[in-house]
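This part of the workshop introduces the protein records we will be handling. Getting from the letters to the tokens is the skill we practise here. The record below serves as our worked example for the rest of this section.

…
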Amino acid sequence: MAKTKIQNRPTKNDPILADIPMACADERVAVEFLEKQRWGSVPRCPHCASSDVYQMRDSKTGERQANFRWRCRDCKVQYTVRTSTVFEDSRIPLRHWCFTFWRASTSKKGVSALEIHRQTGISYKSSLFMLNRIRFAMSDSTPSPLGPGGGDVEVDEVYIGGKPRNKGHNKRGRGTNKQPVLGMAERGDMVKTIPIANVTGATLKQAIRDNINVNARIITDENSAYHGIGEEYGGGHETTCHSAREYVRGDIHGNTIEGFFSLVKRGINGIYHSVSKEHLHRYLAEFEFRYNHREISDGQRTKAAILASAGKRLTYKETVYV
């Protein structure tokens, strides 16, 4: 899957934002809104991709059936806009899905399940699972390696969750129950985040090899775990010495990835308050998705999340509430 390049943000007249309020209030409008975002003007069968399809209608009234089904003339299969998406088999009305997709895509620091529960009236557990499905849809927004053209990629670690016991200088998360996360940001482009088991040189270097193109230039702080990685990259490896209060030297700095981490921390501390290690990767995918689509409008970002939901499933058995 090719990496999506950032586009210029439309400033006004976004048709998706104009349609969202009614889609969040009326079930029929919500169905038609999702069909339009998913298939455009040419509805297609999610099973065989045929466009030779038709809406199933009530034989007496001529109106669309209450379950809004379609039927494919080629493979003879019936389906709805829910089929082959993260909301397949969900009994939650699609108007609530539209609302949650919109809030999750446009709230810079995220939206809590409790707020979705208050706004829609569905249960807190259903709100939480709906958000987890959307986060699952938002995952893999940067499938290809960063820095393919030899760009600068900033790399840093952050520790999320847990209560620190040792707050001494330069402890790097030791003596805590925090989850280490490696972040990589290609300047002017995408970010990637990976929860990692530890911050040893072997772990960090392997994560860099797996996610950054060999043509890039690696930029980190003075952490000795990164020593030697520059020999494997065409752009080499540059560092800043934070212990000596050096944070910027010319174009050598980690401000991009640290700015992204600040959004993550404000979201987790201010909106979610506590995130388990088991589900942290889903929350990181949510922040990553919004950041990587930051240069398009809120409406286009919502559409991108809806499109990303196709072909993905997450069942109740795969979600543990902690």
